[in-house]
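Practice problem: predict the structure.
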Amino acid sequence: MPNTYSKMYCQAVFAVKYRKAVIQDIFKSELYAVIGNLINETGAKTLIVNGHFDHVHCLFQFYPKQAVSEIMKSAKAKSSKWLNESKLLEHRFEWQSAFGAFTYSEREVVNIFDYVKNQENHHQKMTFREEYLMMLKAHNIDFLPEYLFKELE
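Answer:
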């Protein structure tokens, strides 16, 4: 659309099914690169993808014609397919169906970029559950605890 101007940023967070800690050092950089490329394929612009053993953070710029849910649907489905076809794990890999999406202004992006970049250090002090609850509360998002990312049952 001509004369439509925007600059919107989103940090999406999603977890491995049942939060199994299966994202291994030997392939995590390649997995994050695959996810970033898949986000770019949707027309959004990846700034950084990083995470920890059981979850991923993606910071990207997107446009009014795009739905964050469609960007995440593509990135999650195709990255799990890539991981399964690459045979890097002995078992079938799945992401949990849910994700968190948090938007930011231009002036916040540098801090969020650094936050995502430093996930390994961050999780020496805080669990994923604590982190996710903190993000929900910081954005004043109403939630039901029973619908948070599921633990292994």
